[in-house]
Model the fold of this input.
Amino acid sequence: MAELSVSYERAGGKQVIDTKSQVLGEISIDYAQIPEDQRGGTAKQLLAASTLHCFCGALAKALETRGAEYERITATATLETGLDEKKRARVTGITLDVTVHMDEDYGFIFDRVEKIMRKGCLITASLHEAFPMTYNLELEEL
Done:
């Protein structure tokens, strides 16, 4: 199987995630000018962004492979949190709301791809056993 390595360093309020990627490079998180009560949620935002990026990339590839052309894909991830039985904070679900903006001529391809994408992508399917993933896909005809 493939393997990927990401490194992390923290010095005071500054954190650096080195993705070792030409695309992402280093992700710098600097809380120096951020009030303490506004610092939470960064890891959840990164998780939500990861699910969106993976799912929408897989969706785009599935549409393109079947010959569909789209103008754009827009999406929002909503991450829910709660407490487990030991009262620890946990992610309890993620909902992806995804809209494909494309010509109505490709509607039949969208319908097929929508069924496939309900199984998720690499990242979201890996989360299925941990908590519910909800996929709301919509076609907006041009």
Residues 5 and 19 are 7 Å apart (CA to CA).
